[in-house]
Amino acid sequence: MFVNAKEMLQKAAKGKYAVAQININNLEWTRAVLTIAEELKSPVILGVTGGAAKWMGGFKTAADMARAMDASLGVTVPVAIHLDHGTYDQCLACVEAGFTSIMFDGSHFPFDENVAKTTEMIGIAHKNGMTIEAEVGAIGGEEDGVVGSGEVADPAECKAIADLGVDFLAAGIGNIHGVYPENWTGLDFAVLEKIAGLTGGMPLVLHGGTGIPADMIKKAISLGVAKINVNTECQLSFAAATRKYIEDGKDKVGKGFDPRKLLQPGFEAIRQTVREKFELFGSVGKA
Ligand code: 13P
């Protein structure tokens, strides 16, 4: 069931759990996420970066593939397909391509420009029945060429952007895309608490979900985080399982080179990673 992310995130914010945004890269990734979401009766958001869309042949290919698969597999849980860290042009392309949700990332613009562009994009998204996420305070690290310096958001700016009418808000609180460095000082809960207080129940988004310790995830959810994005962790588990298959020489045994055999361990590894995230975030059985 393809939907926008409004209802699932409002329910999550009220129920004190978080819906996972799992980024997809190809057909196998999509099938892994959809099948485990259905099995565990969890709502899910399929995240697509500009880079991943390019790899899959464009935003429309990604959206049509995911939608067709959702229908063919008979998936009954709510699924949103969401542009991750979209530019202005990518947001417009995703409206055309049939996405149900977009993130407009104006965090690198001067604040006034972020406000103006986000306002315009809110109008376009809502006119098309889509939900929209905005960002204040760039997320650190690098994801598909989008580089952020890891700012901690200004709570007053978060309130100003929330008041424009976005559906959910990503605020930098020391989170970073990719693997966290050894000297990472953790999430800034004092700032998160202030942002949650000022934005009054708006579902908040935590990017950089890979490698955040479970206790920090739980605390963030208790303070208003209702959507957590995970990308790198699935890539790492896919790569490790695929590496093991090759290093064990299994591709050289019989028809072990068949892509459906070669990709199977990685596919199962993604399912296991996503299962762990749904369990940790508390979304199992919430569809
Ligand atoms: P990770 O790659 O660190 O899991 O972050 C994903 C993300 O925030 C997508 O926007």
Provide the fold topology.
Elements (H helix, E strand, L loop, with lengths): L5 H10 L3 E5 L3 H13 L4 E5 L1 H7 L2 H14 L6 E8 L1 H10 L3 E4 L6 H17 L3 E6 L4 E3 L2 E3 L6 H8 L5 E4 L17 H11 L4 E3 L7 H9 L2 E6 L1 H16 L11 H4 L1 H18 L6
Parallel strand pairs: 1-2, 1-10, 2-3, 3-4, 4-5, 5-8, 8-9, 9-10
Antiparallel strand pairs: 6-7
The structure holds 1,3-dihydroxyacetonephosphate.
1,3-dihydroxyacetonephosphate binds next to β3, β10 and α10.
Word description of this protein:
The protein has 287 residues and is an alpha/beta fold. It has a single domain (6-281), classed as Aldolase class I (TIM Barrel, Alpha-Beta Barrel), CATH 3.20.20.70. It contains twelve helices and ten strands. The protein has helices at 6-15, 27-39, 50-56, 59-72, 88-97, 111-127, 155-162, 189-199, 214-222, 232-247, 259-262, 264-281, and strands spanning 19-23, 44-48, 79-86, 101-104, 131-136, 141-143, 146-148, 168-171, 204-206, 225-230. The protein has an eight-stranded parallel beta barrel, surrounded by eleven helices. A two-stranded antiparallel ribbon has the order 6-7. Helix 8 links the parallel strand 8 (168-171) and strand 9 (204-206). Helix 2 packs across helix 12. The chain is globular. The structure holds 1,3-dihydroxyacetonephosphate.
Strand order of the largest sheet: 1-2-3-4-5-8-9-10
Please state the oligomeric state of the protein chains shown. Answer: single chain
Beta content comes to 15-25%
Mean pLDDT: 95
Q: Largest sheet, described in full?
A: 8 strands, parallel, barrel
Tally of DSSP helical segments: 12
CATH architecture type:
Alpha-Beta Barrel
